[in-house]
Specification:
Length: 112
């Protein structure tokens, strides 16, 4: 079974620089679920993509133009969204912010 640490301490968890104004931190996970924090600079683009994972995201801060399938919405602090498996999705960061992503099952590509 793939699994992370029992506790993830903010000050002890390093940001991974993904380039183009996006960084992420991996929090708790096992084979079935994963929590990820993604930080975006204004203008950063989460390129349209799809994956077999279910994704639920909470907007911790900032403003994003989010696309899921054919639908676009402006989302802000306190909002959230659900992405079904294989749905095309992506975002453009309008104001710097942080997204909290939950994936099921875990994103193995994030930890290898």
């Amino acid at each position: 079974m793939e699994k992370g640490q029992l506790f993830q301490i903010e000050t002890e968890t390093q940001w991974e620089d993904l380039g183009n104004g996006i960084q992420r931190k991996i929090y708790g996970y096992d084979d079935q679920i994963m929590l990820v924090k993604a930080k975006f600079e204004a203008g950063a683009v989460g390129t349209l993509h799809e994956h077999h994972h279910v994704q639920v995201t909470y907007v911790e801060s900032g403003v994003f133009e989010m696309t899921i399938g054919e639908e676009k919405k402006i989302i802000r602090k306190g909002d959230g969204y659900y992405v079904p498996p294989h749905a095309i999705h992506g975002c453009v960061c309008v104001e710097p912010g942080i997204l909290i992503d939950v994936f099921s099952p875990l994103r193995e590509d994030f930890i290898k």
